[in-house]
């Protein structure tokens, strides 16, 4: 089945493609396609589910194909769950490095450095049907970045049970435990590890 990945984030596309894999590797075997410059709606939702649905539905309607989108964020205990759905634009900072610096400034002197990553993945069909999957990854935030892999807040985040940050792990290691990986694993389980999704009507 052809599925559009409704994101402009190359890191997310790579993670999703690696997670879903191919049939020979026990994956779904879907043919994933990038948006190729098609615009996505502004993320105006107040929840991960709303933002993911906005993107997935827009892509499904525009392309006439099933579309996969996710919205994810970092929820920090000492900041009452911030930045949450605003993680990608936290503090109106322009890039990952600036957002990480801003987060560290906000946490300076904080005794509680607990946090969790949350991801909601939605598969939208052109006929309006939606499938929703959620994954979470709890952990602790460091006082400085470590690692060169990953993206976003990965260099600051040490998952529970680990001594390395997400940015110190390989793509495969991160995928095995990540919030997005867990949401995608739920999607794969729902489709029985390889069975294509139901046939869907196409937008005229």
From TrEMBL:
<feature type="binding site">
    <location>
        <position position="42"/>
    </location>
    <ligand>
        <name>Mg(2+)</name>
    </ligand>
</feature>
<keyword id="KW-0378">Hydrolase</keyword>
<feature type="binding site">
    <location>
        <position position="71"/>
    </location>
    <ligand>
        <name>Mg(2+)</name>
    </ligand>
</feature>
<dbReference type="Pfam" id="PF01725">
    <property type="entry name" value="Ham1p_like"/>
</dbReference>
<comment type="similarity">
    <text>Belongs to the HAM1 NTPase family.</text>
</comment>
<dbReference type="GO" id="GO:0046872">
    <property type="term" value="F:metal ion binding"/>
</dbReference>
<keyword id="KW-0479">Metal-binding</keyword>
<dbReference type="GO" id="GO:0017111">
    <property type="term" value="F:ribonucleoside triphosphate phosphatase activity"/>
</dbReference>
<dbReference type="GO" id="GO:0009117">
    <property type="term" value="P:nucleotide metabolic process"/>
</dbReference>
<feature type="binding site">
    <location>
        <position position="174"/>
    </location>
    <ligand>
        <name>substrate</name>
    </ligand>
</feature>
<comment type="subunit">
    <text>Homodimer.</text>
</comment>
<feature type="binding site">
    <location>
        <begin position="151"/>
        <end position="154"/>
    </location>
    <ligand>
        <name>substrate</name>
    </ligand>
</feature>
<protein>
    <recommendedName>
        <fullName>dITP/XTP pyrophosphatase</fullName>
        <ecNumber>3.6.1.66</ecNumber>
    </recommendedName>
</protein>
<dbReference type="GO" id="GO:0035870">
    <property type="term" value="F:dITP diphosphatase activity"/>
</dbReference>
<dbReference type="InterPro" id="IPR029001">
    <property type="entry name" value="ITPase-like_fam"/>
</dbReference>
<dbReference type="GO" id="GO:0009146">
    <property type="term" value="P:purine nucleoside triphosphate catabolic process"/>
</dbReference>
<dbReference type="GO" id="GO:0000166">
    <property type="term" value="F:nucleotide binding"/>
</dbReference>
<comment type="function">
    <text>Pyrophosphatase that catalyzes the hydrolysis of nucleoside triphosphates to their monophosphate derivatives, with a high preference for the non-canonical purine nucleotides XTP (xanthosine triphosphate), dITP (deoxyinosine triphosphate) and ITP. Seems to function as a house-cleaning enzyme that removes non-canonical purine nucleotides from the nucleotide pool, thus preventing their incorporation into DNA/RNA and avoiding chromosomal lesions.</text>
</comment>
<keyword id="KW-0460">Magnesium</keyword>
<dbReference type="InterPro" id="IPR020922">
    <property type="entry name" value="dITP/XTP_pyrophosphatase"/>
</dbReference>
<dbReference type="InterPro" id="IPR002637">
    <property type="entry name" value="RdgB/HAM1"/>
</dbReference>
<keyword id="KW-0546">Nucleotide metabolism</keyword>
<feature type="active site" description="Proton acceptor">
    <location>
        <position position="71"/>
    </location>
</feature>
<dbReference type="GO" id="GO:0036222">
    <property type="term" value="F:XTP diphosphatase activity"/>
</dbReference>
<keyword id="KW-0547">Nucleotide-binding</keyword>
<feature type="binding site">
    <location>
        <position position="72"/>
    </location>
    <ligand>
        <name>substrate</name>
    </ligand>
</feature>
<feature type="binding site">
    <location>
        <begin position="7"/>
        <end position="12"/>
    </location>
    <ligand>
        <name>substrate</name>
    </ligand>
</feature>
<dbReference type="GO" id="GO:0036220">
    <property type="term" value="F:ITP diphosphatase activity"/>
</dbReference>
<dbReference type="GO" id="GO:0005829">
    <property type="term" value="C:cytosol"/>
</dbReference>
<feature type="binding site">
    <location>
        <begin position="179"/>
        <end position="180"/>
    </location>
    <ligand>
        <name>substrate</name>
    </ligand>
</feature>
């Amino acid at each position: 089945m052809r599925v559009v990945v409704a994101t402009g984030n190359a890191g997310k596309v790579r993670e999703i493609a690696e997670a879903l894999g191919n049939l020979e590797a026990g994956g779904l075997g879907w043919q994933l396609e990038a948006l190729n410059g098609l615009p996505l709606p502004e993320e105006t939702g107040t929840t991960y589910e709303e933002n993911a649905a906005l993107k997935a539905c827009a892509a499904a309607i525009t392309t006439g194909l099933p579309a996969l989108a996710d919205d994810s964020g970092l929820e920090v205990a000492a900041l009452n769950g911030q930045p949450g759905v605003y993680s990608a634009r936290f503090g109106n900072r322009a890039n990952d490095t600036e957002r990480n610096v801003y987060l560290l400034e906000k946490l300076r002197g904080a005794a509680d450095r607990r946090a969790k990553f949350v991801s909601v993945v939605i598969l939208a069909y052109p006929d309006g049907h939606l499938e929703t999957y959620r994954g979470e990854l709890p952990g602790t935030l460091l006082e400085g970045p470590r690692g060169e892999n990953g993206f976003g807040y990965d260099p600051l985040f040490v998952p529970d049970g680990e001594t390395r940050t997400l940015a110190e792990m390989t793509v495969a290691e991160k995928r095995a435990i990540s919030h997005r990986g867990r949401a995608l694993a739920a999607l794969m389980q729902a489709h029985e590890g390889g069975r294509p999704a139901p046939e869907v009507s196409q937008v005229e």
